[in-house]
Write a structure and sequence with these properties.
The protein has 274 residues and is mainly beta. The protein has a single domain, classed as YVTN repeat-like/Quinoprotein amine dehydrogenase (Methylamine Dehydrogenase, Chain H, 7 Propeller), CATH 2.130.10. The chain has one helix and 22 strands. The chain has a five-stranded mixed sheet with strand order 2-3-4-5-9, with no helix packed on it. A five-stranded mixed sheet has the order 6-7-8-10-14, with no helix packed on it. A hairpin with a 5-residue loop joins strand 16 and strand 17.
Length: 274
């Protein structure tokens, strides 16, 4: 057994409701990015091209719009100062020859943009996916949503708008993955599903923890802020965003994660893995 992974079964801190999305236009929060005290989210498939920037009280302070409308947006990932990656990667029928990611500006204020779009192609046929991760070096990772277990695919380090960007499989992931996020240490990331989540090392993608999630109407968002705070979002009008307490983000992630009766436990500490 991995002694360090066993620490995740220890004592942690309670997850509590942090705020409620006030905007009635946010009905299917299906991705969450936390940056600079603001929250960026996007509706699931069926909405037009737009992302919402929300403040800490749940009020929408900015909307970024673009056209043409996406096919099936499912995910977000940080893309640098004032920008996010939008993952038009959903494919419930596994029929899309390719999927798309866009890089859009976000923040206070409404804007209409023409974002650069990058085509991604799987090496082994179509897949449904709802998780987009941005690794510390900027490389994008797509995690497929499969019943028996997902696959982590890596995009090229430099994306091209002129030709398709070939994905390659690099690791396995939990089944029914709906979102994910890197931790501030850059050495771990979390992938969530509807009732379970798992934490993996980076690089290597070795699973070091697995835990149950609190009940949510349809949990499809998880975001980790620069300060290590962890947030969970769910679909539904005026849905609640849950917050966990994560202390510091130095060096190795040494944590305890326990969900019980709607509680998420996560503690970040300092030291070397045993």
């Amino acid at each position: 057994a991995d002694l360090w992974a066993d620490l995740w079964a220890g004592v942690g801190l309670m997850l509590v409701p942090d705020f409620t999305f006030a905007d009635p236009a946010i009905v299917e929060s299906s991705g969450l990015v936390v940056r600079d005290g603001l929250f960026v989210t996007v509706n699931d498939s069926g909405d037009r091209g737009r992302v919402f920037t929300v403040d800490g009280s749940g009020v929408t302070v900015g909307v970024t719009s673009w056209s043409p409308a996406p096919v099936d947006v499912e995910a977000l990932a940080p893309a640098g100062d004032g920008e996010v990656w939008v993952g038009d990667i959903g494919d419930n029928t596994a029929s899309r020859a390719s999927v798309t990611v866009l890089r859009v500006p976000v923040g206070p204020g409404d804007r209409t943009v023409t974002p650069p779009a990058y085509t991604l192609v799987y090496p082994d046929g179509a897949h449904d996916a709802e998780t987009l991760l941005a690794a510390p070096d900027g490389r994008l990772l797509v995690v497929t949503k499969d019943l028996t277990g997902g696959t982590v695919y890596a995009a090229p380090r430099q994306l091209s708008t002129a030709e398709p960007n070939r994905l390659r499989p690099i690791a396995d992931a939990l089944g029914f993955a709906t979102d994910g996020s890197f931790f501030p240490d850059g050495r771990h990331y979390v992938v969530r599903g509807y009732g379970r989540a798992a934490v993996y090392t980076w690089p290597g993608s070795r699973e070091v923890a697995s835990f149950r999630l609190p009940p949510q109407p349809q949990g499809e968002g998880i975001g980790v802020g620069e300060d290590g705070w962890v947030y969970l979002s769910s679909e539904g009008e005026h849905s609640r965003v849950l917050r966990d307490v994560a202390v510091s983000a130095w060096g190795w992630l040494r944590s305890a994660v326990v969900f019980a009766g709607g509680a998420l436990r996560l503690l970040l500490g300092h030291g070397q893995a045993p």
